[in-house]
TrEMBL record:
Protein name according to UniProt: MBL fold metallo-hydrolase
SMART domains: Lactamase_B (SM00849)
InterPro entries membership: Beta-lactamase_class-B_CS, Metallo-B-lactamas, RibonucZ/Hydroxyglut_hydro, WalJ/YycJ-like
Organism superkingdom: Bacteria
Pfam families named among the record's database cross-references: Lactamase_B_2 (PF12706)
Key words of the record: Hydrolase, Metal-binding, Zinc
The Metallo-beta-lactamase domain, residue ranges: 11-193
Cofactor(s) needed for function: Zn(2+)
Length: 260
């Protein structure tokens, strides 16, 4: 099992997970906030033919996560999986005849060789979820776009071998920014985005006994820097800051392989 980020941030998000069993390969994308040509370019840069994707998992309806989903899915015949609430929020944008499958936010389902576990999160969207994916041996947790951790989030992420974790902002940098006051409150609120400290709190509470890889994601270009995110997370794990990866806006991060 392996995974790669094509880019992460307020200008667009996409992550690809791949599982192999013998000659069988399953590839799914989580979100697509990039334009069609751009996401095709980024996919090919990772050696992925867009038409080889077996599904696109949508977390919620904000443009940096769903902006390119339907164009990519329509061109390459890729099924889209999203919650009932998210589908209702974007119903007018779903092309006629395209496969859009509603999933329950608490019920796991399979796409090829991957088991997909959605779980609800507090965020200012219609019915937002995040995902844990496993191939029967390895578990990858993806957690971006939420205002705070919850007991259910902690339980769902416990026992993951790898985690992509939102570290959106430094509260001091956000407070000093030129953002409107209303936007500052939204970002820092319970249904907004995780600060570095809030991400560290989630990491502290969850079962980390199997965790081998950690990437900070969805960093604000104006209100955070990788060094602050790494320094908040590293002490929880007893790792060196440079051992924690960062998914940036322009390049994401290269393939990470989970293996013995």
């Amino acid at each position: 099992m392996r995974y790669t980020s094509l880019g992460s941030g307020s200008e667009g998000n996409a992550l690809v997970v791949e599982a192999r069993e013998g000659l069988s390969v399953t590839r799914v994308m989580i979100d697509c906030g990039f334009g069609l040509r751009e996401v095709e370019r980024r996919l090919l840069g990772r050696g992925i033919e867009p038409s080889s994707l077996n599904g696109i998992l949508v977390t919620h309806e904000h443009g940096d996560h769903i902006g390119g989903v339907f164009r990519l899915a329509r061109r390459h015949g890729i099924p889209v999986h999203l919650t009932t609430g998210t589908r209702a929020a974007v119903a007018a944008r779903i092309p006629e005849g395209m496969t859009a499958v509603c999933c329950d936010s608490h019920t796991a389902f399979a796409i090829g060789g991957l088991r997909v576990q959605p779980f609800p999160v507090p965020h200012d969207a219609r019915e937002p979820v995040q995902y844990v994916l496993d191939d029967g041996q390895w578990r990858l947790g993806v957690l971006t776009d939420l205002g705070e951790g919850t007991p259910h989030v902690h339980r769902t992420l416990s026992g993951c071998d790898a985690l992509v974790l939102e570290c959106n902002h430094c509260p001091d940098m956000l407070a000093r920014s030129d953002y409107p006051v209303s936007l500052k409150y939204r970002i820092a609120g319970r249904y907004g985005h995780l600060s570095n400290a809030a991400a560290a709190d989630i990491l502290r509470v969850m079962d980390r006994s199997r965790l081998k890889f950690l990437h900070a994601a969805h960093l604000s270009k104006k209100n955070n820097v990788p060094e602050l995110a790494r320094s908040a997370l590293a002490p929880i794990l007893g790792w060196q800051p440079q051992e924690i990866g960062v998914a940036d806006q322009d390049t994401g991060f290269d393939w990470v392989t989970l293996s013995q």
